[in-house]
Amino acid sequence: MSNLVQDLIEHLNLERLEENLFRGDSRDIGGKSVFGGQVLGQALLAAQQTVEGREAHSLHAYFLRPGNPRESITYDVDRIRDGRSFATRRVVAAQSGRAIFNMSVSFQIAEEGFEHQSSIPDVPPPEELLSIAEWRRQTMKHIPESLQDILTRDRPIELRPVQPIDVLHPDLRPPRQQVWLKAAGNLPDAPAIHKALLAYASDFTLLGTALLPHGVTHFMPRVQAASLDHAMWFHRPFRMDEWLLYDMDSPSACGGRGLGRGSIYSRDGRLIASVAQEGVIRLRREGPPSA
Q1: Choice among 42, 203, 249, 263 that is catalytic
Q2: Is 138 considered catalytic here?
Q3: pLDDT interval class at 133 (50, 70, 90)
Q4: Which of 4-8, 12-16, 76-80, 118-122 has the lowest mean pLDDT?
Q5: Is residue 72 in a domain?
Q6: Alpha helices, H only, the chain
Q7: Looking at the 3D structure of the chain, how many domains does it have?
Q8: Which end of the chain has the smaller Cβ count within 10 Å, N or C?
Q9: Is 117 within the bounds of a domain?
Q10: Is 33 a catalytic residue?
Q11: Which domain of life is it from (predicted)?
């Protein structure tokens, strides 16, 4: 396991304070607030620690307030229901006594049933593509020095876009993109870890899909982009240390909000997860001219 991946797993793991109360560390990955994927992954692991014999099959979350990346987060799990096939948990994440996030998670025993799925898009394999970090290093001279480390550093989740986007000088594109992703190292055989890491990674590029037709990105000073909610459905078993294709589109943007949808496929074409997210996307108002 690489040091970057081991560090991320340790970061997502939680300290148990009471039977249903957990605490996790925050981390600054270059934004002004806690990365939403971190809270998703930690909340999912908190809920999983209160369930036996079932795995998460869906989650529905709301981001209520920006999190402080310099402050730890507590996760309070409410054991809503334990049925014969399904179990439901509600998780509230808080900092300084104020809720910043809540999530409902449903767990299910393993079952057989009807099967069908959508087909994986026809795109180049990951071996023919550069990672986001590699691609940006090739265009380093166009990146301001203040952003070079954030934009070009290696990360525990490797992302290889099918059509890379210049986040500082984007062109106009249809609201669809595909990215290959996987953990940058081998992982233990623990499905809960793989699902937490996929939840973490699913928040990286989805909302940006809604900005593609408008020729802007969240790296531009006047653009405000922040997740409002996030939903995931885990369909089939998968491994995060194997390549997965994240196929994303945005059917709508209006009222200062954009909607993103994602389908995640294993390399052999199995649909392993679906994602939906709405977020704030708007231009900040320019201040009055200085006297």
Answers
A1: 203
A2: no
A3: confident
A4: 4-8
A5: yes
A6: 3-12, 36-48, 132-138, 145-152, 191-201
A7: 1
A8: C
A9: no
A10: no
A11: Bacteria
Does 288 map to a domain?
no
| Position 38, amino acid | Q
- Tallying the residues shown for the chain, one arrives at 291
Pairing mode of beta strands 55-63, 21-24: unpaired
- Whether 146 sits among the annotated catalytic residues: the reply is no
Measure the CA–CA gap between 118 and 269, rounded to whole angstroms. 9
Catalytic residue of the set 106, 227, 263, 274: 227
pLDDT band at 220 (very low <50, low <70, confident <90, very high): confident
CATH of residue 99's domain is 2.40.160.210
Mean pLDDT of all residues belonging to the chain: 92
pLDDT for res 286: 66
Full residue range of the structural domain in which residue 25 is found: 3-109+126-283
* Domain membership flag for residue 114: no
Residue 77 has pLDDT above 50, yes or no: yes
Higher pLDDT, 127 or 32: 127
DSSP 128: G
